[in-house]
Specification:
The protein is of the alpha/beta class and 404 residues long. It has two domains: 24-44 and 305-403, Aspartate Aminotransferase, domain 1 (Alpha-Beta Complex); 61-299, 3-Layer(aba) Sandwich (Aspartate Aminotransferase, domain 2). It has 15 helices and 13 strands. The protein has helices spanning 2-16, 56-69, 77-81, 84-97, 123-134, 151-159, 173-182, 205-214, 237-241, 269-278, 280-283, 290-304, 306-325, 348-360, 390-403; strands at residues 33-36, 39-43, 116-120, 141-146, 164-168, 187-193, 217-222, 248-253, 263-267, 340-346, 363-364, 367-368, 378-383. A seven-stranded mixed β-sheet has the order 3-9-8-7-6-4-5, with helices on both faces. It has a three-stranded mixed β-sheet with strand order 1-2-11. Strands 10-13-12 form a three-stranded antiparallel β-sheet. Helix 5 packs parallel to helix 6. It starts with a helix and ends with a helix. The relative contact order is 0.16. The model is unreliable at 108-112 (pLDDT under 50).
Length: 404
């Protein structure tokens, strides 16, 4: 059959380019030590940055949530799927990140000031909601998108029908300002990741916010890899920089450092109310299980409490230790103060070979290749977790140094 033959040929082509992807099911809970194909591996490939995915209190809260609320929600939020568990989580999130949204209070009235939040089933769905909805105000709209944005942000921009799109080079504030100054649209959206998922660096958000306020633009920030990790209390990248503005529309992912799943959008009440009216990925999706929201309330308690502080401090120790051990390696780590520590190897073949050699010695660090990263920059994306020990990091560094 021609259609099947075409797919087989394309898959064979990906194989030849060392670009084919495959699923690898694990047989154990998420953690530093996982069982893969019946064998234990020391894993450096999870986004479970605080080690909460298998935290006993979070696991018990999820089980309790199922007992209280059942297995599923049964409908979209706007029909009958919005549970008191979802509502409680949204209130808790608003209190947690609220100081970054102007007045610094939490206000549930649609016309009020302060912060409201909206819970989504995934970060991808949250990002698909924000940009198209804010582009659908009926005003001439222009979007300014960071060149290294995550696929979900890129797809969101594509869904913003009728908007003029400008892509500015990674971290290039001068080009962005020129684009903003020359754009006549009255509705302007700057869209960026906070921590870039493949490079580990942090966007220059203070300067981006200055530009957003100067040119009357929304600043849409996807903090998938910063929430729970950055900021003194784990509130994320806005707290990390001490930013506070009603121009900010913030997405926080809850399946990474928070250890469970889902995501939220935080913004001034008018933005949240507009999303409820216009965000298609919210309106037309079955709500995430209430049990997930119930468990996330416990996860937030851990993040905000003494244990969360201790886990973030330990994580910073691990980051510094790995960077010190790899400082004079011929394979260089990109500059990053986050748990994402990319080791650039160059070719697809080299990245796959080094990943395979690590796995043969009991370490799981997958190779990242184009199109996820630019051609010629294939890498190992080392992801550290507070659940790792110094001995774990030493083992990784020693094995890598032996393979140079």
């Amino acid at each position: 059959m021609h259609l099947i033959d075409t797919l087989e040929a394309r898959i064979a082509q990906l194989d030849a380019q060392h670009l084919r992807r495959r699923l690898r099911p694990t047989q154990s809970p998420c953690g530093p030590h996982v069982t893969l194909n019946g064998t234990e591996r020391l894993a450096f490939c999870s986004n479970d940055y605080l080690g909460l995915a298998n935290h006993p209190a979070v696991v018990e809260a999820l089980a309790q949530g199922v007992r209280l609320h059942g297995a599923g929600s049964g409908a979209s939020h706007l029909i009958s799927g919005h549970s008191q568990a979802h509502e409680a989580l949204e209130h808790k999130l608003a209190a947690f990140v609220g100081p970054q949204f102007g007045a610094g209070d939490v206000d549930d009235a649609p016309g009020g000031s302060g912060c409201r939040t909206l819970f989504f089933g995934s970060g991808y769905m949250a990002n698909l909601a924000v940009t198209p909805a804010l582009a659908a105000t009926g005003e001439p709209t222009a979007i300014f998108s960071e060149a290294l944005n995550h696929a979900s942000l890129i797809d969101a921009v594509r869904l913003a029908r009728g908007a003029r799109v400008h892509v500015y080079p990674h971290g290039d504030l001068q080009t962005l300002e020129t684009q903003l100054a020359q754009e006549p649209a009255t509705n302007k959206l700057i869209v960026t990741d906070s921590v870039f998922s493949m490079d580990g660096d942090i966007a220059p958000l203070p300067q981006l916010l200055t530009l957003a306020e100067r040119y009357g633009a929304w600043l849409i920030v996807d903090d998938a890899h910063g929430f729970g990790v950055l900021g003194a209390g784990g509130q994320g990248v806005l707290a990390h920089f001490g930013l506070n503005s009603p121009h900010i529309v913030y997405t926080g992912t809850l399946g990474k450092a928070a250890g469970v799943g889902g995501a939220f959008v935080a913004a001034c009440p008018q933005v949240i109310d507009w999303l409820v009216q216009k965000a298609r990925s919210y309106i037309f999706s079955t709500a995430a299980p209430p049990a997930m929201a119930h468990a996330l309330c416990t996860s937030l308690d851990v993040i905000a409490g003494p244990e969360g502080h201790a886990r973030r401090a330990h994580l910073q120790t691990l980051i510094a230790h790995l960077r010190a051990r790899m400082a004079d390696s011929r394979w260089h780590l990109l500059p990053s103060d986050t748990p994402i520590q990319p080791l650039i190897l160059g070719s697809n073949e080299t990245a796959l070979a080094v990943s395979a050699q690590l796995e043969a010695q009991g370490l799981w660090v997958p190779a990242i290749r184009p199109p996820t990263v630019p051609s010629g920059t294939a890498r190992l994306r080392i992801a550290l977790s507070a659940a790792h020990s110094l001995e774990d990091v030493d083992r990784l560094a020693s094995t890598l140094r032996a393979l140079e």
